């Protein structure tokens, strides 16, 4: 006769082998964030920039099949369940797309652009006059 410990272990192993355990853990996390509505109410309103950034991250997560992580991001950040239209995101970011770039998340194109745009050792100037210097280290 199996002990409770052996039964728990067998159930855990079965759920892991079916890929269900990870899904259940992610779903529990999402539900916990959803249940903690008190914390969500204390979040500041989602700015336009944060909405765009969060949507870029969500598009990336869904593309890479990190759907459970995306559901936690949605619950924790207060993103609307409905995704923003990709064309809207591209227009907001002033990104031109071709057929091949439309098959991957916009975030890939943005990263690729900055990685391949000449001298990456200087400052990157952001809208509003802020500038960010790359961290010092062996990559320079």
Automatic annotation (TrEMBL):
It comes from the Eukaryota. Belongs to the CEP43 family. Keywords: Cell projection, Cilium biogenesis/degradation, Cytoplasm, Cytoskeleton. Transmembrane segments: none annotated. SMART domains: LisH. InterPro entries: FOP_dimerisation-dom_N, LisH. This is Centrosomal protein 20. Involved in the biogenesis of cilia. Required for the recruitment of PLK1 to centrosomes and S phase progression. One of its GO terms (cellular component) is centriolar satellite. It is found in: Cytoplasm, Cytoskeleton, Cilium basal body; Cytoplasm, Cytoskeleton, Microtubule organizing center, Centrosome, Centriolar satellite; Cytoplasmic granule. One of its GO terms (biological process) is determination of left/right symmetry. The keyword Oxidoreductase does not apply. Its main location: cytoplasm.
């Amino acid at each position: 006769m199996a002990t409770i410990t052996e039964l728990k272990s067998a159930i855990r192993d079965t759920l892991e082998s079916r890929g269900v355990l990870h899904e259940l853990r992610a779903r529990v996390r999402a539900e916990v964030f959803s249940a903690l509505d008190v914390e969500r109410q204390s979040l500041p309103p989602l700015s336009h920039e944060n909405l765009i950034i969060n949507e870029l991250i969500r598009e990336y997560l869904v593309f890479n099949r990190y759907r459970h992580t995306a559901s936690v991001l949605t619950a924790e950040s207060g993103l609307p369940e409905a995704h923003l239209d990709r064309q809207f995101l591209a227009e907001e970011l002033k990104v031109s797309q071709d057929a091949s770039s439309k098959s991957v998340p916009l975030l890939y194109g943005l990263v690729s652009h900055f990685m391949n745009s000449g001298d990456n050792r200087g400052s990157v100037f952001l809208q509003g006059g802020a500038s960010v210097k790359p961290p010092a280290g062996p990559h320079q």
